[in-house]
Amino acid sequence: MILTLVKLRHSVAKSCTWPYCLRRCSYCNFNKYIPREDNHRVMTECLQRETETLLRLSQVSCITSVFFGGGTPSLAPPSSIAAVLESVSRQVTLPDQAEVSLEVNPTPAGMSKLEDYCQAGVNRFSIGVQDADLEVLGRDHSSCQALQTIEEAQRLCPGRVSVDVMFGRPGQSVKSWEEELSELLKVCDDHVSLYQLTLERGTQLFKKVQRGDLTVPTEDQTAQMYQSARRFLQQRGFEQYEVSNFARNNAASLHNLSYWKGRQYIGVGPGAHGRFVPLGGGGVGREARTQTMEPDVWIREVQQRGHGTRRRMELSCVEVLEEVLVMGMRMTEGISHKHWELFSPQLSLRDVFGTSTRVRELLQNGQLILDDRGLRCSWEGLALLDRSLNIVITLVFFHLPDALEYHESLPTF
Ligand SMILES: C[S@@+](CC[C@H](N)C(=O)[O-])C[C@H]1O[C@@H](n2cnc3c(N)ncnc32)[C@H](O)[C@@H]1O
Ligand code: SF4
User: Fold this and answer.
1) Of 213, 229, 258, at which residue does a domain stop?
2) Which candidate, 19, 2, 23, 15, places its Cα nearest to that of 109?
3) 200 lines ligand 1 (CB under 6 A)
4) Which of 57, 230, 347, 351 is the most exposed place for a label (fewest CB within 10 A)?
5) What residues flank ligand 2, with Cβ below 6 Å?
6) Residues 226 and 347 in one domain
7) Domain boundary among 212, 237, 258
8) DSSP designation for 93
9) Is residue 78 pLDDT above 70, yes or no?
10) What SUPFAM superfamilies does the record tag this protein with (predicted)?
11) Which residues is 266 bridged to in the sheet?
């Protein structure tokens, strides 16, 4: 689960995970566990307790979005979701219009609870739909269930349903992907996330591909799949607002935009990540925080000391700027001058990037744009983001030595 919080002067996002799944999809390397017993009650108590501890530590006063992610948060009882939201509201302001999303697996069990999740305070659903190759992917739903779940979610939250779909899967061709996507677009709502399959070490799928039992599409083919999906979505009125995300009718996810805009967020639950200034503990700089991954250990830690923070590291000015760049360049709007100035008042975007010959090459060949709006990728450049990022990040390290002092109090958005 992930919650986004905004303090009057500081924007803070808070992430909270439900780490359990009914089975392991063959390709997935996320932090997930098959539950051995029903521990919903203790899990909920600990999520509430950690929420309270970290909210106090961050000293935020208002939350603008909440994201319940996983694992499979649609395995959590709606009462657990309600309890976490109540903990938030007890401590800080959670406005009625706050975006509250929940990731849903399109199983009958998940679908039957959608209405109760809405009663609990959820107002946006994100549904992981893999319509084909379900067997190979080890998914626990059928295409018919996926369709029914999308319909039910749309009935409950019209205009606030996202579907996640994956390309570059074993045996997939450009043609079969186009057919699949075009079918999906007939039924989907106003938000689509496209993920290219990453072959993760340690997964069943990785082993099968290594052994030669399965083959995945070539890099050229996946590049074609990505480009054809972008065109398809554009033709159907979707605007791309990030490398993998498309929305129409203003349905962009406010929560995800918080990450890409470099806002602060708090992570709650096993394996959750956070980025915030621990003002309540006397901190002045932004910290990168990771919660303990293994649920049983995390539960013990929360019971003993109120939180399961395993790792915390204060970020230097350069590290914050690197994150602002890596995240900001993923958005089609890129990084505006004003946004950059919040994090780097001393050196402008033009100071850092305007004089480099390597950046000039990217500008000249049309991959990057640096103009009065700011720095961003072109349509073609977004597909090659990794390459240009290597160059722009090197420049940040070159121009902004670690010695520069970074004051988190500067950004007031
Ligand atoms: C980790 S899941 C959590 C939500 C939910 N359990 C589900 O499966 O949809 C979030 C998204 O990550 C995607 N995902 C997981 N592993 C991936 C991989 N190796 N490559 C690309 N996408 C992946 C899933 O397909 C899903 O759309
Ligand atoms: S893709 Fe989703 S359902 Fe499948 S194992 Fe990963 S987190 Fe669980």
Assistant:
1) 258
2) 23
3) yes
4) 351
5) 21, 24-25, 28, 30, 32, 70-72, 105, 128
6) no
7) 258
8) B
9) yes
10) Radical SAM enzymes
11) 3
